Amino acid sequence: MRWRGERESSNVEDRRGAPGGGFPGGGGLPIGRGGIGLGGIAVALLAAWLLGVNPLEMLGMLSGDGTVVEQPRSAAPDAAGERAAQRPPQDEAARFVSVVLASTEDSWSAVFADGGAQYRPPVLVLFTGRTSTACGLGNAAAGPFYCPGDEKLYIDLAFYRMLKERFKAPGDMAQAYVIAHEVGHHVQNLLGTMGKVQSMRERVGERRYNQLSVMLELQADCYAGVWAHHSQQGKKWLEAGDLEEALNAAAAVGDDSIQKQTQGVVVPESFTHGSAQQRARWFRTGYERGRVQACDTFSARPL
């Protein structure tokens, strides 16, 4: 991707190095009450497997005796902490995600405008380790995620190292796909799709809800492809091999790919994000079609 020199988004909140370890105030239960992530629990399972620890402990969900606990509230940051959280990122990795976020703002603003609506961009939060969100305590072990409660994307940039080394999905377009997928969840939130799916959680069985979760994740992959389509039309910044990087990343975080690594066996009934083939297919669909209407994963026949 030829991204250097492109516009950087002003909707980036850098909590790295802020007093309190990335806690700008607030608190609550661990992430999971509404947070939607690229790989979510599956990524945490892989991280736990690699480190040899309980995956629930990786998510900060268990106390020493195995009970679910509420995280303590953190004190509000001082003025220096506020300034640290609001400072524009200076390092190259953070500037890259700022450029990608700006591109999603441009692309989705145009898409929404074509439909007679106004796009409200999300905020991207950079953090290290753990951070407070409106969905509860966000833990880097769960991978990048979107919280509809505060309309923010959260990412610990160390995830990109895991994406490259453990998932074998290197490249800047692979990293851009991660941001675009989480922005896809934001689009779902704005359109009301996410709320409708989450409202069904108490009314359907676990298996059906897992199916709906897969459809939601695949639609976010498709929306990521819609972004790639429009950003390429506007900037012509993709180079040879970039599309393949994104498709490889989408496949690498498929449920079957992760389950093969973590447990050596694939259990389709437990999928929550979709198979490698499905995720790559829907990203490609969004990229080739470039239209929100092409991303109706809820009506499409499964592979």
Tell me about this structure.
It is a single chain. It contains eleven helices and nine strands. A five-stranded mixed β-sheet has the order 1-5-9-8-3. It has a two-stranded antiparallel sheet with strand order 2-4. The chain has a two-stranded antiparallel ribbon with strand order 6-7. The longest helix is centred in the last third of the chain and has 30 residues, at 206-235. 47% of the residues are buried. The radius of gyration is 18 Å and the shape is globular. The chain has 303 residues and is an alpha/beta fold. The model is unreliable at 24-33 and 40-85 (pLDDT under 50). The chain has one domain (12-295).
**Major β-sheet strand ordering:** 1-5-9-8-3
State the separation between the terminal residues, measured CA to CA. 31 Å
Order of helices and strands: EEEHHEHHEEEEEHHHHHHH
The count of β-strands is 9
The major sheet is characterized as: 5 strands, mixed
